[in-house]
Design brief:
The protein is 33% helix and 21% strand. By secondary structure, the chain is α/β, with parallel strands linked by helices. α1 packs parallel to α6 and α5 packs across α10. The protein starts with 6 loop residues before the first strand and ends with a helix.
């Protein structure tokens, strides 16, 4: 991708915007960044930009994009916002940071890409762990927290050494792709999320399905055979598609071509690896626990095996990998009560999987900024498993209206007060679970800040 001397405008100055701007500047482009926030609000982020990058803050002025040769849009900027839509109308190429990274690395490194409503970060990190265990060199980036463009910049001088680029991709990132074509891709699940950005589930699912839009013969696609929306997308999108990728599945419920669970064991049924299904590992031997993590482990295993990792490396990795912070993370046990941090449970589908993972009585802390979710979906599980529901944040009243009559429900003034209420009501054998079903931005910087504050509060109990 020839960028030297080109005028490029980067919309949005979050982490991916900074990564894109600095990489573009390194490649000789004339870069301008624009953001609706003011210079004062972005003072810390501005320090991370290369000296040659110009800025236009406090709004998107016409002059920063009408003469641009290329627009690079950060994931947080919808493609429908007026300047971006107008630029497209004028014929100015508009791509996202993921597409930019792909074009720079295209034909140099195969991409392995993971999307889904829930489990993306765990699956992507586990896949990367297995690849390294197998002796491969990798670049890890994307929605997982480190911008892919930033990781490319670290390589230096175009010396491309890794064997694979392992990326977690969100629906927001997939909205702005064009040529992005992973060698192996996976959709873990599609459940309602970001309904404040999409007109409905259909639009959201279509965005997720773009991960395999450009895949063809010689590529691989891994899908969740147990997820109805994922199967619907497969059936609809594959009709009439020329040059289809080879499709494999993973399943907790039935035997499939791919990786599946049966009678306490995980089986591999991939003819290219072994002509017969063979037991890969006892499910009890997988270190990360919970039904959702069983699915994540199967998806990562299928992708790793398709990338020529050895079954031995897969098995060893599944026994060793301990999971990620804020995903059903055990915090402490005190007086027979366990405290678990699932702050990454930012949508209703994630909370469903979390609740399904527990047998003991739960006291659930939920709430935050609503993403237009239907909390009534949780009624049966909350009635069955949750002895008390403690609510925080902007969505507290909406959740109480949906669930307040199925279990004991209390609205807390903040997270500390919620933990105090849980401590007063919990009995030996109970688990206090933070799994909010909401975004964090009403009270916290992000889900990580929320999870760390929860852990800090929990660790201070009794001091």
């Amino acid at each position: 991708m020839e960028l030297r001397g080109k005028r490029v405008t980067v919309f949005g100055l979050a982490r991916s915007g900074v990564g894109a701007a600095n990489l573009l500047a390194e490649m000789g482009a004339k870069v301008t960044v624009t953001d609706k926030k003011s210079e004062g609000e972005l003072s810390e982020i501005m320090k991370k930009l290369a000296p040659s990058v110009r800025s236009s803050l406090g709004g998107h002025r016409d002059e920063v994009w009408v003469s641009a040769d290329l627009l690079v849009v950060s994931p947080g900027v919808p493609m429908e916002v007026e300047p971006v839509a107008a630029a497209k109308e004028m014929g100015i190429p508009v791509i996202g940071e993921l597409e930019l990274a792909y074009r720079i690395l295209e034909n140099r490194i195969p991409f392995l890409a993971v999307t889904g409503s829930n489990g993306k970060s765990t699956t992507t990190t586990l896949l990367n762990y297995i690849l390294i265990k197998s002796g491969f060199k990798t670049v890890l980036g994307g929605n997982i927290g480190n911008a892919l463009t930033e990781e490319i910049l670290k390589m230096g001088n175009g010396q491309i050494g890794p064997d694979f680029c392992v990326v977690e991709v969100s629906s927001f990132q997939l909205e702005s792709i064009d040529t992005f074509r992973p060698f192996i891709s996976a959709i873990l699940n599609i459940t309602p999320d970001h309904m404040d950005r999409y007109r409905g589930m259909s639009d959201y699912a279509v965005a997720k399905a773009r991960i395999f839009e450009n895949q063809g013969e010689g590529d691989f696609l891994v899908l969740n055979a147990d997820d109805p929306e994922t199967m619907r997308i497969e059936n609809e999108q594959m009709k009439g598609k020329k040059g289809k990728p080879d499709i494999f599945h993973f399943s907790r419920l039935r035997e499939v071509k791919g990786v599946y669970y049966r009678n306490g064991k995980v089986y591999c049924n991939m003819p290219s690896i072994d002509p017969l299904p063979f037991p890969l590992i006892e499910a009890s031997g997988i270190k990360i626990k919970g039904v959702h993590n069983l699915e994540n482990a199967m998806a990562a295993s299928a992708m790793a095996l398709l990338a020529n990792c050895s079954p031995g490396a897969v098995i060893e990795s599944l026994r060793e990998f301990s999971g990620l912070e804020h995903r059903l993370e055990f915090v402490r046990e005190m007086n027979g009560v366990k405290y678990v941090n699932d702050s990454k449970g930012t949508n209703i589908g994630a909370v469903v999987k979390s609740l399904e993972s527990f047998q003991e009585p739960l006291i659930l802390i939920a709430g935050g900024r609503d993403k237009a979710g239907d909390f009534s979906v949780l009624r049966d599980l909350v009635s069955e498993k949750v002895k008390a529901l403690v609510l925080i944040g902007e969505a507290a009243e909406k959740i109480r209206e949906a669930l307040g009559n199925v279990t004991d429900t209390i609205i807390a003034k903040d997270l500390r007060n919620a933990v105090e209420i849980c401590g007063q009501r919990a009995e030996k054998g109970d688990t206090v679970l933070l799994s909010p079903a909401c975004a964090s931005f009403d009270m916290f910087r992000d889900f990580e800040d929320r999870g760390r504050q929860f852990k800090k509060i929990v660790m201070e109990i009794g001091k």
